[in-house]
Design brief:
189 residues; Rossmann fold; globular; 5-stranded parallel beta sheet; alpha/beta; 7 strands; 36% helix
């Protein structure tokens, strides 16, 4: 088995892809993926190893069954965890369903869920009851395969905060080889 040190990043991109030269790069959630890459570029200690850079590039117009799906699966199999950007624009797309279903149900990848529209722990967690807020749980309904499967792997929910994302990416409890008990986690307020 290959060394699994990368994080597979999943996010919503419109289908069919935008025919412009920017294509997926123009979508809002792709920008958050690029933010992780920028943090790594400017701070080599940022614990993000990009699984998307581990095999051949694909084009937005590539054939789903012969090219896109096999490459997605190859990248996921080589990952220690997956990062899901879940926002109000997330839709239940074919690619996102495949990424979550294969990542969780076939590869048992711990999942770090980043909510890009929320910047503080208290935005996603009710600090007094120590529970995840209803507005966050509603986002889970946008991606039923994730909602219905996330209890099968350790899943940590974090706001779009660099220090908390750093902490989650570096946390051995959210890596496939040393993962903690399957449950829903968050960093308390």
């Amino acid at each position: 088995m290959a060394y699994r040190n990368g994080s597979y990043v999943a996010f919503y991109v419109d289908e069919p892809f935008d025919p412009s030269n920017l294509a997926a790069h123009a979508t809002r959630d792709f920008l958050y993926y690029n933010l992780l890459r920028a943090w790594k570029t400017t701070d080599p200690t940022f614990p993000f190893v990009d699984s998307h850079n581990k095999n051949c590039n694909v084009r937005d117009g590539s054939d789903w069954e012969r090219t896109l799906k096999p490459r997605i699966r190859e990248r996921i199999r080589g990952s220690k965890n997956q990062v899901l950007f879940l926002s109000s624009i997330t839709r239940n797309s074919r690619a996102l369903r495949e990424e979550m279903d294969y990542g969780i149900n076939s590869c048992a990848l711990p999942t770090i869920v980043v909510y890009p529209e929320y910047g503080q722990k208290s935005d996603i967690i009710n600090c007094s009851s120590k529970t995840i807020r209803q507005q966050v749980k509603i986002l889970w309904d946008k991606l039923p395969v994730f909602r219905d499967s996330m209890g099968d792997v350790p899943t940590i929910h974090v706001p779009n905060d660099k220090s908390l994302i750093r902490r989650a990416l570096g946390d051995k409890d959210f890596a496939v080889g040393s993962r903690c008990k399957c449950s829903t986690y968050f960093y308390p307020c």
